[in-house]
Design brief:
By secondary structure, the protein is mainly β. It has no helices and 9 strands.
Length: 89
């Protein structure tokens, strides 16, 4: 029912209501977003920042940022281990 997407054009995370065909939230990002990935076992969304050398952790319940994970240069795709405890960037 909810779609999360990032854009590089305006460096933002969009939280969209699919059924209502509306944007519930537009969250400005500190750098260009590359992709995002929802955690299967907790209310977290990971957002890789291509120009920011980090991954943001977003709380899908409170619609707020939880933290940042420093990465190497230009983090791109994201994957979680089968148990959801390890994030690969």
């Amino acid at each position: 029912r909810t779609l999360y997407t990032v854009t590089k054009d305006d460096s933002a995370l969009y939280v969209c209501d699919v059924a209502g065909r509306s944007v519930r939230q537009r969250l400005p990002l500190p750098a260009e977003g590359y992709t995002c990935l929802a955690a299967p076992n907790r209310p977290e969304l990971y957002v890789s920042l291509w120009g920011g050398d980090q991954v943001l952790v977003y709380d899908t319940r409170t619609l707020a940022l939880l933290g940042r994970i420093a990465t190497g240069s230009r983090p791109g795709d994201l994957a979680l281990s089968p148990n959801g405890r390890t994030l690969y960037v």
